Structure formats: structure tokens, C-alpha cells
Amino acid sequence: MSAVVVGAAALGCAVAGAFVPTVAYRLAVPYGEPARRECTECGTPLAPGLRGWTAGPDCGHRTSVSRWLTAPVAGLAGGLLGAALGPVAVLPLFLALAVLGVLLAVVDVACHRLPDQVVLPALAVTPALLAVVALVTGGWDDWLRGLLGCLAVGVLLTGLVLLPGAGFGFGDAKVGALLGWYLGWLGWDAVVLGVVLPWVVNAPVLLVLLAVRRVGWRSKVPFGPALLVGALLAVLAVGGWPTIAAG
Q1: More exposed terminus of the chain, fewer Cβ within 10 Å: N or C?
Q2: Alpha-carbon gap, residue 101 to 93, rounded angstroms
Q3: CA 198, CA 222: separation in Å to the nearest integer?
């Protein structure tokens, strides 16, 4: 694998990940409410325009998780994707999805929702962006499989949402459908792993939270982070992880 590709992917995602806390702060609001416009500590209005989405409030209060956490997490995800997929035309889209995933995970942990302001536009542009890649590479079979993966995962998770007491939300189903596009592009084995692995990821987290009494048996725990981590692991599994380990 090219160290240049891995390094560039990691650096690009880390830089983008540094902006996640401010965006997450504005989006981490209860369902149905508009994006936050002022500091919750002192009421200082956030800056208008782009600056308000990329810089914290002028009062200096901490807005969300530290960028010293989100930047390395996004950078690690980007580096792993660069190593697993290599210099392929679709890699930039996977890297953008990794940064988006860090943002969604932070918001989901903060307020137990996956905001439509982020997920729906991503779902809307993904078919067109992947179609451009398919046009360049001739990968229309991959595009069609991505569409089917999106539908399969979306329908499956929607069915789980409708089950009484399932503890899932429609936001999980939408994010699952988005991930299904990308996993389907890679193959059906990635789709299957992307459905199974989130449960494997979530189980030990739940056990730890129960052990330290942070949640109870009836508590609802955000499932979005597990979906996103499971998808990353699925990409690594089918994208050539043994090759990475071999150097």
C-alpha cells in the first residue's frame, strides 16, 4: 500500500475532523428544534454564516467534545480506509463518509438522534457521486449493487424500528441505508458484515455501561456509533486487511 495515500487520507480526515465539535454542537438539539444559535452556558449568539459553523462561541465556553479527540479519530479512520482500499477513485467518498460518521456519532451520543439535516442530503447526493465514479471506472455493477445494498439495509433496519420495544429509531435506518450504498459498492459480503458487526460492537459497550451503572436494562443507548464502527470494520475486512498487516 502506498504510504502517501494512507498519510494523505489520514491527514485530510484529521483536518476535517477538527471542525466536527462546532458542527455537532449546533446540531445536537432535541428532535424538531432548529440548529443551536447561541451558547448554552451564557446565551452568547454564535457567529453568523460559515464562521458560526467552524468556530466556537466568542465567549470561549467549551461547546462539545474536544477537537483533540475528533481529529485523531477521524484521522485514524481515514488512514485505515486509505490502507484498506488504496488509491481507488471511490476512496475520497469513503473518506468523506468517515468524517461524516464521526460527526453523526458525536451528535447521537449527545442527544440520541441522527439529524436529518446531515443524513438526508448525504443520502440524496450519494447516488450521483457514486454514478460519477462508476462513469469514470465503468463500475456500474458496483453502483447497482450499492443501490440494492442501500435498499436491503434500509428495509431491514426499518423493520426493526417498527418492532415494539426494539430501541431503534428511523435515524438509525436512514444511516444504515446510507452505509448500505458504500458497503454494497464493495460487495455483498461487506453488506452482510455491515449488518452483523454493529451488534458485535454494541454488546460489550452495553455490558460495560451496565457494569458501571451508567445505564439500566430498559435504557435506550445510541446505536448510531455501533452502526458506523461496524461499517468501518466491514470495509477493513473486505478491503484487504491481511495485505495491510503484511506491509
Answers
A1: C
A2: 12
A3: 12
Radius of gyration (Cα) for the chain, nearest Å?
A: 18
Question: Could you give the CA distance from residue 151 to residue 147 in angstroms, rounded to a whole number?
Answer: 6
Contact 27/117 with Cβ under 8 angstroms? yes
Burial of residue 66 (CB within 10 Å: 0-12, 13-18, 19+) is: exposed
Q: Give the residue extent of every domain in the chain.
A: 1-111, 114-247
Q: What is the structure's pLDDT at 242?
A: 41
Within a 10 A sphere around the Cβ of 83, how many other Cβ atoms? 22
pLDDT, position 239: 81
DSSP 57: -
What's the pTM?
Answer: 0.92
> Is the torsion defined by CA of 152, 218, 25, 9 positive or negative?
negative
Distance CA 4, CA 18 (A): 21
Consecutive sets of 10 residues in the chain, 247 residues long: mean pLDDT of each? Answer: 88 96 90 82 78 73 82 97 94 98 95 93 98 96 97 95 82 96 97 95 80 68 92 91 41
Distances (CA, A) of 218 to 15, 81, 113: 38, 36, 18
Nearest to 21 by CA among 113, 105, 112: 105
3-state secondary structure of 98: helix
